[in-house]
Specification:
The protein is α+β, with helices and mostly antiparallel strands. Helices cover 28% and strands 30% of the residues.
Length: 415
């Protein structure tokens, strides 16, 4: 991508309510643009990151047997009345044609349960699991912290259906391990911990995945022995580690990026959703729900991976693999070599942001590169060519070196 043609550029302006690192840096670096409080436009750079997060999640959900679907954002209020959740304060209510009462969904149990009822009839149809990656809407009383607490946000929600509690328990553990794989691939494995929280609909505890961060909204108590945590909301009833029993729990701040919980038969009972066992008798369907927020995770990554100069993206979700910066473009040789290198990198199936702007100083280009945070910066200039090639620098390092043109592909993928 030529930077001169990029829709959305860096800016020195800070949005007035940038009350978090992710809101400030993502806006300044040209990844998002605020529409209104808690609602953002994703610009090309931001959408590339969001899609990469989504794809990692998608692959791991597919690996545990999830089948991707897409459910509507808009639902009749009647479904929420069926589950007696029509008065939730976070619901956005709308009036449709013929005075129909509608809801913008903040979650999809009220949609997926009657949907599954249309296709699951027998024990032979179980277990089954479907998921979606879709925008949701919550009428937050105070949207804040950029992508961490929005009124419109991106969410992956997986729903599983089982013949009994034992099978739900089995699958629940499978998804739990899939979440660890996701956060490992996102570069957050060291910061994200399994956290015991207040129960879902059918069990004493639910589980959150909390990314430890000084500016997180949640308070958790982290076991120093096994790296399991307890949410502040249950610490009075669970003041030791629920995993190993240790009493050394350290208070810390964190960002909730995922949660999983067992629904049991709460929603299937509300919608009279049952299956026939192998004796032909009706039995209740057991359900589980597994949420993970790609947009919130994007914000959490920025909260964790940044420095005083800007974002430092993990390579797995960076908008591009390489930031190619060209200086001295008035020099025909430099221009020719820079253009040729850009095409060479593209031919090697590398994703490249090529700063081809002619009107900016070297300092301004370096400042933009640091702010955007792409993992590898390649600099080509009169000086680099005279020194034998191009300068390579990793965003996470202060060191740089000159390498020859034929070393580039190898050097880019070095740790």
């Amino acid at each position: 991508m030529l930077y001169s043609r990029l829709f959305g550029k860096t800016t020195k302006n800070i949005i007035s309510d940038a009350d978090s690192v992710n809101a400030k840096l993502l806006s300044q670096a040209g990844f998002i643009s605020k529409q209104l409080s808690g609602v953002y436009n994703y610009l090309p750079l931001g959408l590339r990151v969001l899609k990469k997060i989504q794809q990692i999640i998608r692959e791991e959900m597919d690996a545990v047997g999830g089948q991707e679907i897409l459910m509507p954002a808009l639902t009749q209020l009647e479904s929420w009345q069926t589950t007696k959740r029509q008065d939730l304060p976070i619901l956005f209510h709308l009036k449709g044609q013929e005075d129909n009462d509608l809801v913008l969904n903040p979650t999809h149990e009220e949609v997926v349960t009657p949907l599954a009822k249309n296709f699951i009839f027998s024990y032979r149809d179980l277990p089954s699991a479907v998921y979606q990656i879709q925008d949701k809407f919550r009428n937050e009383p105070r949207a804040k912290s950029g992508l961490l607490r929005g009124r419109e946000f991106n969410m992956k929600d997986l729903y599983s259906f089982h013949s009994d509690q034992a099978d739900l328990d089995r699958y629940y553990e499978l998804v739990k391990q899939a979440y660890f794989k996701i956060f490992n691939r996102l570069g957050l494995e060291k910061q994200t911990v399994l956290t015991f929280a207040s129960g879902g609909s059918f069990s004493k505890y639910s589980h959150e995945f909390q990314t430890v961060c000084p500016h997180g909204e949640d308070t958790i108590y982290l076991c120093q022995k096994c790296h399991i945590a307890v949410n502040k909301e249950i610490i009075s009833e669970q003041d030791t580690c629920p995993e190993c029993g240790a009493a050394d729990l350290r208070e810390t701040k964190a960002i909730e990026v995922g949660n999983i919980f067992k629904l049991g038969t709460k929603f299937s009972s509300a919608f009279n959703f049952s299956y026939q066992d192998n004796q032909g008798n009706p039995q209740p369907v057991f359900m589980g729900c597994y949420g993970l927020g790609p947009s919130r995770t994007m914000g959490a990554i920025v909260e964790v991976f940044h420095d005083e100069h800007g974002i430092v993206w993990p390579s797995s979700v960076a908008p591009y693999h390489v930031h190619l910066v060209a200086l001295d473009l008035f020099d025909a040789k430099v221009k020719s070599q820079a253009d040729s290198l850009y095409q060479q990198l593209l031919s090697s199936h590398l994703e490249v942001l090529y700063d081809d702007r002619t009107e900016l100083t070297a300092g301004a280009k370096f400042t933009d590169a640091d702010l955007i945070g792409i993992p590898v910066r390649l600099l080509i200039s009169q000086r680099s060519l005279e020194s034998g090639g191009v300068e390579i620098k990793r965003r996470s390092s202060q060191k740089s070196e000159i390498i020859s043109l034929n070393q580039i592909s190898t050097k880019i993928f070095e740790n």
